Amino acid sequence: MEYNFREIEKKWQEYWIANGVYKVKENKDKPKYYVLDMFPYPSGAGLHVGHPLGYIASDIYSRFKRLQGFNVLHPMGYDAYGLPAEQYAIQTGQHPEVTTKQNIARYREQMDKIGFSYDWSREIRTCEPEYYHWTQWAFIKMFNSYYCNDEKKALPIDSLIEAFEAVGTEGLNVACGEEMSFTADEWKAKSDKEKQEILLNYRIAYLGDTMVNWCSELGTVLANDEVVNGVSERGGFPVEQKMMRQWCLRVSAYAQRLLDGLDTIDWTDSLKDTQRNWIGRSEGAEVNFKVKDSDLEFTIFTTRADTMFGVTFMVLAPESELVEKLTTPEQKQEVDAYLERTKKRTERERIADRQVTGVFSGSYAINPFTGDAVPVWISDYVLAGYGTGAIMAVPAHDSRDYAFAKHFNLPIIPLIEGCDISEESFDAKEGIVCNSPRPDVTPYCELSLNGLTVKEAIAATKKFVAEHKLGRVKINYRLRDAIFSRQRYWGEPFPVYYDANGLPQMLPMEALPLQLPEVDKFLPTATGEPPLGHATKWAWDSVNKEVVETSKIDNKTIFPLELCTMPGFAGSSAYYLRYMDPHNNKGLVDKDVNGYWRNVDLYIGGTEHATGHLIYSRFWNKFLYDMGVICEDEPFQKLINQGMIQGRSNFVYRIKDTNTFVSLNLKDQYEVTPIHVDVNIVSNDILDIEAFKNWRPEYHTAEFILEDGKYVCGWAVEKMSKSMFNVVNPDMIVDKYGADTLRLYEMFLGPLEQSKPWDTNGIDGVHRFLKKLWALFYGNTESLQITDAEPTAEELKSLHKLIKKVTFDIEHFSFNTSISAFMICINELGSLKCNKRAILEQLIILLAPFAPHTAEELWHVCGHTTTICDAPWPQHNEEYLKENSVIYAISFNGKVRFNLELPADMPREEVEKVALSHESSAKWMEGKTPKKVIVVPGKIVNIVI
Ligand code: ANZ
C-alpha cells in the first residue's frame, strides 16, 4: 500500500472537525495545561514557512501534554486591528474590515492544511465588538483607578477622592504625573473642572500632555517600540517629537512589580535582561539647585551624589519647562534656534547618538555643596522624560558631560584618586574620593567624603542631602507610561466622550461595546482630525445613552465622542484570558473558569515583542489581578522564543545599461547589478529562463550569457520577505510532500530557538522516513502486515530507547534531536523486519505529536476506533535498555592494550579468567604471573605484572 499522504491528511482533518477532537472544556478531573502561540496579524501576504515554526512546536507540545493526560487548552485567533490594512484602505478605498476578513480566511486555510490541534471554537478576533468590548471595559476600569505605592496595587479612584476630602495630599504615596500638594479645604474649594484635571494626574488611564513620536506620513503617534532608527517601523517614514494631549496608561506605576515578577517566571535570561534594561531601575538622589539672582529653584536627578563637588555646569533637556524660565533675553534667539533643530530627533536617536550639541541658557545655578555658580546649558543628551529632565554635569566622571565640557570648553574638576579622565576611559568609578570638599569651598559645607570609596561616598551624600533637606533619595525607572491614542481608523474606539468643559467622561459599562463607526475616508479630516472625524454618527447622547448623529452635538446632553482609537497592543494585552471563556457576554472571563485555566503554561513567539507586547500584557494582567478579576499575577509562566527562518535568496546579474543577464561565474568580466529573483523560478540555483522572461514584462526581451548552457544564479541568506522574493509558501510544501513532512522538516531544520535558513535539501530524507515507517506496517503489499507475536529483546530495546529519548527531548523542546531518534529507530526496526503490534503501536503514539495525520491513520488501521490524541503516552522500561554485552578495556600496568566484548552479566571471576587467558594477553604478560588483577565491572580489567 502506497503512503498516500494527500488522501490521509484530508481524511483525518475532516474526521477531527466532525468529531470535535480538539474541542476542550474545563475538566476538574484532569490537570490543565495551557499552550499559547502569539496570535498573528493577518497580513496580505499570507503565511510563509517561517510563521508555522513556532506553531508546529507548540502543537507538538500540546499533543504531547494531552497524551500525557493533561486537559490542554490550545487556542488560536487573530490580532486583527493594525496599520497595514488601513494603509491599504487609504490606497485602494477597500474597507480594512474586508481585507482583514479575506486575509484571515487565507491564514485559516493555510493553517488548516498543517493539521494543528487548535480548538477553533475559541477563536477570537481583536476587531470584533464581542472581543473589544472587554478591551474598552478594562480601559474604563483603568480610568477609574489609581496606584497606591503603599499597598503596591491599583485601587478605586473614589478612595483617593475620599482621602483628598479628608486630608488633602498629606501622607499621599501614590503614582502620579507630577507631585501636587493641597489641603482638604483647598481641594473642596476647587471647581469640578479643576478636580477632574487634578485626578487625571493620578488615574491609571489618563489624558496627559506628552512628548510623542509623531509620524505625519502615517498621520499618527507611534510608541517607542514602533520607531526604529528614527523612522516608523511600518513603512519607514520620518518621525518627529511633538507635544500632544494623549491617552496614556500609567505603566510606570507597575515598574517595580514588573521587575519583581521576572524572578517568578521561566523565561530565558536574555529576555529577562532585555525587560530589566527596558524597565531600567536606578537608585539615586534628587537634589535642589537655586538659580542665581532669582527665586527659582530646580531639581536634578543623580545616581552619583558623591560627585557634588565636581559639578561645573548644569544641563536641561530642551523640552523642559525650565528652559523658558531660565533663558535670558540675550540668549533667546540662539536657544529658540537650537530647540527647533532638536525637535526632529527621537528620544532613541538622542540616546544612541554621540554628537555633541547644546546652547547656553544665560542663567547660573548655585551648587548647594560649594556655593559655586555654574552655568546652565540646554542639550538634547538630557532627556525630558527621565528623572527630572535636568542634570548636574560632572565632566570628570561622566563621559557625556566630559565630551560636552571639552566641546564647549567648560572646566573639569577630578574627584577620585588615580582616576584616568580621557575620552577612552571612564572606568574609575570604583576609586577613593580625594578632593571633597575642595580646599576653596571648605567653609561652605561640613561634609567631607575624602578617603571614602565611591559607594560609601554616595551613601554619605544621600544621607546628608536628606538630613539637610537639600533634596531626597529617589528610585527612578526608565520605563515610561504607554501612549495609548492613535490618530487612526482601524482600531478599538475609546469609550469616551467630552463634556461641556472639554473633560473626558467614560461611557456607562452597559453601553459597551462602543462600535467602530463607518467613515467614507480613512484619511485625517481637512481640519487635521483623525479619520473618525469623518463619521456622521459619532456623538454621545447622555440621556438616551446611545450613539447619535454628529450633527446633533449641543454640548448639553449630546457630546462629541473621542476621535482617536487604541493602539495595536491594546487588543493583544489580555487576549490570552479571553480564550479561556471566549463567548462570555457578562465578563472578560468567568472567575471559576479563570480559576481553572489560571495562566499560560507555555507561550511561544518571536523575540521582537520583548519590550512591547510582553511588557504591556504583563502590566494589563497585573492591573486585572489588582481588580480581583483574575487569579494570577503573571500571564505567561514559561516563554520560548522560536528562532527566525531566514530565506535563501537568489540573484541574477544584469550587465549595466542593458537587458542582458550574465551567469554567476562569468559576471566578473562585466559591470553588473545583482537583482533578486523569485526563488520559485530557480531550482538548485539554476534559473528557469522561460519562467524568468514571463516573470515581469521588462524581462520579456531579456538576453542571457550562459555557462555550460545554463544560467547559474548567485545566492545569499537573508530575512524571509516578499521584497527579497525568497518567500517559500508552506502550501507548496504541503501539496508536494504533505503536512506531516512539513511539520517534521521544520522541526528537523535545527534547534527551535536558533535562527536558520530555509533549505529544502533535506526534505526528501524526511519524507522517505515516513515512507519507511509506512513500510513497517504494509511492507510492499496491499494489506496490513502486523502481527501479535511477542517482540524480541532487540525490538523492545529499540522502542524503549526511543520512548526515553523522545520524552526527554520534548520536555526540553529539543524537537530536532527527537526526529533523528525516530529515524534511527525506524532503521533499526526496519533491519529487524519488525512488524509486531506491541512495538509499532507504541511507536506511532510517540510520533503522533509530530506527524498527527500519519499516526492517526496507522492507529486506525491497527483497529482502534477512537483518536490517537487520547492514547496513553508510552513509558519506558529501563530493564529493556540494559545492554547485553559490554566492552572491557584490558590494561596492563595501567595502559590499555586491547578491548574485549563480554556478556554484561558475566561474573567478576569469569571476566578475570577470560581476560588472562585471551590470546592477546600473552604478549603483554611476558610469561610472568600477574601480581594483581583489578576488575571494574562493565568497564575495565587492569592486570598488574
Ligand atoms: C551626576 C553624575 C556624575 C552622573 C557621574 C553620572 C556620573 P541612570 O543610571 O541611567 O539612572 N541623568 C539624570 N537624568 C538624566 C536625563 N534626564 N537625561 C540624561 N541623563 C540624565 O543615570 C542617571 C545619571 O544620568 C545621573 O547621574 C545623571 O548624571 C544622568 F560621574 O549625575 B549623573
UniProtKB/TrEMBL annotation:
First-listed, main subcellular location of the protein, grouped into a coarse class: cytoplasm
Protein name in the entry: Leucine--tRNA ligase
Gene Ontology biological process terms from the UniProt entry: leucyl-tRNA aminoacylation
Keyword Protein biosynthesis in annotation: yes
Organism: Parabacteroides gordonii MS-1 = DSM 23371
CDD domains (UniProt xref): Anticodon_Ia_Leu_BEm
Domain Aminoacyl-tRNA synthetase class Ia, residue spans: 11-146, 718-745
Enzyme Commission code(s) on record: 6.1.1.4
Pfam families: Anticodon_1, tRNA-synt_1, tRNA-synt_1_2
Keywords attached to this entry: Aminoacyl-tRNA synthetase, ATP-binding, Cytoplasm, Ligase, Nucleotide-binding, Protein biosynthesis
